[in-house]
Specification:
By secondary structure, this protein is α/β, with parallel strands linked by helices. It folds into two domains: about 1-65, 2-Layer Sandwich (Alpha-Beta Plaits); about 85-330, Aldolase class I (TIM Barrel, Alpha-Beta Barrel), CATH 3.20.20. Helices cover about 30% and strands about 20% of the residues. The chain has helices spanning about 10-25, 50-55, 105-120, 145-155, 170-175, 190-195, 215-225, 255-260, 270-275, 280-290, 315-330, and strands at about 1-5, 25-30, 35-40, 60-65, 85, 90, 95-100, 125, 160-165, 180-185, 205, 230-235, 265-270, 295-300. It has an eight-stranded parallel barrel with strand order 7-8-9-10-11-12-13-14, surrounded by five helices. Strands 2-3-1-4 form a four-stranded antiparallel β-sheet. A hairpin with a 4-residue loop joins β2 and β3. The structure holds phosphoenolpyruvate (PEP) and manganese (II) ion. Phosphoenolpyruvate binds near residues 102, 186 and 272.
């Protein structure tokens, strides 16, 4: 932590700050210029609230130089983490694609979606069985029946399953059906859910909160990891800004920012990020170019009649085109996207 004193701060003020720092257990290194003194405080605990120092008389500003999180930080683990999801690595050379409808609606819808996305290079099938909807009158999901449909469709096409868990009581219900627990944007700071999910052994897909800073997001990852589950995948899905043309503002700069601060893989969701299907392919291209380790996209066999998020769901042929384009981008930056699978006859 670096403490910058006011220009011309009198010596007794400086001494008082040094004493206080010592009392909090810091070693203090003082450097005094002609007009200003800067104090370096060594040994900051992750949970130390710097405002204790900011409010002292004569202090101009205080800067943290170490992150408030540990397990999620790049300084704790230098090499990239590759999260293994039953043989599919997230965070390695391959840019993985997680695709499927917003909600699980029926056996037919999931079978058609799974067959299509698997044939064109996706490795994960997505679909919500428990849905966090802004309105209590909107479709809330099929619950456990939806999980069964999702798992069966994924298994028929050798896809991994990712689905959302909204509350601790759902963990045991969802556990046998899923490969990855998705924590939705609205639950990014549901700390009791993060703690409970941290006690499981399955990978966790942590979506960024609607108005969360990168540090808050990484602190939420820390909650999961501190409980003993290191298999965290981050997902940028757009944040709230003053812009209204798109549903959210997809913060692609978060990709290189997170890569610098953390070793965890990061996936981008251009479907929720833009909310409009004709914006998904360009942002998917941009996400891969920015260094994303994967994409999560909504795809539906009949978007006009989808029970949720139809307007942002890709048509099947758009999904094929997106895959074709991101293969070109991935190739340009030394990464890969799975090739279309040969259809067996
Ligand atoms: C979803 O993936 O369907 C979803 C609800 O996402 P988010 O939590 O990002 O809004
Ligand atoms: Mn959705």
């Amino acid at each position: 932590m670096v403490v910058v004193m006011n220009v011309g701060a009198p010596e007794p003020q400086i001494q008082a700050v040094i004493e206080r720092l010592n009392r909090y257990g810091f070693d203090v290194h003082r450097s005094s210029g002609v007009q200003q003194t800067v104090l370096g405080a060594i040994g900051v605990k992750p949970d130390f609230d710097v405002r204790h120092i900011k409010v002292l008389e004569g202090v101009a500003d205080v800067y943290r130089v170490t992150e408030p999180y540990k397990f999620a930080s790049r300084s704790w683990k230098q090499e990239n983490t590759v999260v293994d999801v039953r043989g599919v690595g997230v965070g390695g050379e391959e840019v993985v694609v997680m695709a499927g409808p917003c909600s699980v609606e029926s056996e037919e819808q999931m079978e058609a979606s799974a067959a299509h996305v698997a044939a064109h290079g996706a490795t994960f099938l997505r679909g919500g069985a428990f849905k966090p909807r802004s309105s209590p009158y909107s479709f809330q999901g099929l619950g456990e029946e939806g999980l069964r449909i999702l798992r069966a469709a994924a298994d028929r096409h050798d896809l991994r399953v990712i689905t959302e868990v909204m509350e601790p009581a759902q963990i045991d219900v969802i556990y046998p059906y899923t490969d990855v627990f998705q924590i939705g944007a609205r639950n990014m700071q549901n700390f009791s859910l993060l703690k409970e999910i941290g006690k499981t052994d399955k990978p966790v897909f942590l979506k960024r909160g609607l108005s969360a800073t990168v540090d808050e997001w990484l602190m939420s990852a820390e909650y999961v990891m501190a409980q003993g589950n290191p298999h965290v995948i981050l997902c940028e899905r757009g944040i709230r800004t003053f812009e209204t043309y798109t549903r959210n503002t997809l913060d692609l700069s978060a990709v290189p920012v997170v890569k610098a601060k953390s070793h965890l893989p990061i996936v981008v969701d251009p479907s929720h990020g833009t909310g409009l299907r004709n914006k998904v392919i360009p942002m998917a291209r941009a996400a891969v170019a920015a260094g994303a380790d994967g994409l999560m996209v909504e795809v539906h066999p009949d978007p006009a009649n989808a029970r949720s998020d139809g307007p942002q769901s890709l048509f099947f042929e758009q999904f094929v085109e997106m895959m074709r384009q991101i293969r070109l981008i991935a190739d340009a930056i030394g990464r890969t996207v799975r090739a279309p699978q040969r259809v067996s006859v």
